[in-house]
Task: structure prediction
Amino acid sequence: MKALCFNGTNDVRIETVPDPKILNSRDAILKITTTAICGSDLHLYDGFIPMVKPGDILGHEFMGEVVEVGKDVHNLNVGERVVIPFTIACGRCFYCEHDMWSLCDNSNPNAETAEAMYGYSGSGLFGYSHIYGGYAGGQAEYVRVPFADVGHQKVPDHLTDEQVLFLSDIFPTGYMAAENCNIKPGDTVAVWGCGPVGQFAIKSAYLQGAERVIAIDRFPDRLRLAERFGGAETIDYSDEHVVERLKDMTSGRGPDSVIDAVGMEAHGYTPDAIYDRVMQAPRMITDRAHALRQAIQACRKGGTVSIPGVYGGIVDKLNMGAAFGKGLTFKMGQTHVHKYMQPLLDHIKLGDIDPSFIISHRLPLEDAPEAYKMFKAKKDGCTKVVLKPGMTRQPESEDTHAYAAAR
Amino acid sequence: MANRLGIGKGFQHEGQNTKTNVGEPERVVSVVAGSALALFGLSRGKLPGLALTLLGSEAIRRGVTGHCYIYDAVGANTATTGLSDQVSVPHDAGIRVDKSITINRSAEDLYRFWRNFENLPHFMDHLKEVKVQDNTHSHWVAKGPLDSSIEWNAEIINEKPGELIGWRSMDGASVPNAGSVQFKPAPGNRGTEVTVSLKYDPPAGKIGAAVAKLFGEEPDQQISQDLRRFKQVMEAGEVPTTQGQSVGRKV
Result:
């Protein structure tokens, strides 16, 4: 089959690899119908997540049709259409039973490595480095799904792939980010990063009863998307002092909760952001936490800092005094996707949200290497690329124009 | 406690580095020969004489205290070990590993699975096969160095259904060993705490273990990994793997 493989920093290629096989009795094999590139894939592409090896198949947002099931999978049939959570979880350990699926005890074959780095190991993830298990991802024609009996969401025929695909990661991730804010009536939520997770966090904060959502980014098209589709107020950090502006907008109170939907490769124009870039280049630090620092500074007293953005390792110059002095609560981590798939599918069915609003580009799988380049550069209004194996290449993508016109 | 674990006093009194490790007859020889050597050295004088005197003094000390630093270093011991009938590994020889893990199953389930020793090779990597012979006796086959096998017979010497199992190798085992597993409910419905103690006596003492470590057979890590697999088998029903999955060309 064809699959998108990591070859090195800024180097991914479509390669022909062996088809996946059932390896364990709770596995299933899926024929991928639609997959996507996630913002967190760019952390791999940029070489900031350790232990990604040449030949690794990337991709953790995918859906498709069941073509084979292992002998202990009794609730899935060949031909059924399913979305797969990006977190791999056994469903039977203490963490799974307590709805903390991304902390599953049993799904990471390289748990020792993760323990050496983090003390304890989280769950395995599709296509996200050998620290998280080294599982082959879904930017491919087929994929092996471990623990498929608990790790799937069946979807009804009347919903398109594009409407349900993002149940695999970014919709639940944005939703959990908002849920971690414990939103109360009258709350203002500030969201750093208007990429896909930020957009879903905005939508989810409103779904959970936020009074106001203020979104922060520097790309005009992403800010417009946050206003138009999300209904957020916006701050362009390239020409405003974010912390002061947020204070003004909330009459001196500050946002009740802040969401860092940026993570470890934050951009910024302040001295701390420049320091991060200098230190990260020779790997003196692993993570650039400019957005997180600003969010901590901006958050009101007693507020909550929610972090859906991915961090991989060591952060420098974090104002712990500000966090302590204001009595902040921190909530973070990989998304417990399994917990959110059914309730969020219900939101989609009810018409509360159509997640396909985020898609800017629809391309054949073969175009994935170019798509990574475009997504990284945020060119052509690129907010979200979906890839379809077997799709015929169109001479000029009409979608892009339609999308640009819609704004 | 050690008795409750079913491995007798073999698991106590370890780690003092001044312990007696020279046998009685050898101590007498050491004192006599050391004295002769020291006197001869004194009579010679000069540097070679001084060296002989020092050597002789050390032999006397070794004989008087019964402790030899060289034996310590190579893991040897010629002192009597006082084998009790509950112990298959002498208490001051061999290697002991204690490991614990919490598993989200009842103590009863875990006990029942473990009690059938034929299940052990499912998660204990160094075991090839265990054949149960009768209610307390079994035959074990383990991986040895360089594709060889090590085989022995074992017997259960202590057992409390749902709580603990203790076993040891029978006489004649080339690598005498003993083990116990204890199952205890974890607080607040967190499953069951499983504690394993294994002790074995590799042929070349501590040097054998050092060599084994070089080959990645470090016993401590080995048992940790075995227990992790036990947890995976009991909770998830399988050991997670990526062996044999699709992968691109390695550059």
About this structure: The first strand of chain A starts at residue 2 and ends at 8. Residues 400-407 of chain A have pLDDT under 50 and may be disordered. Chain A touches chain B through 47 residues (CB under 8 Å).
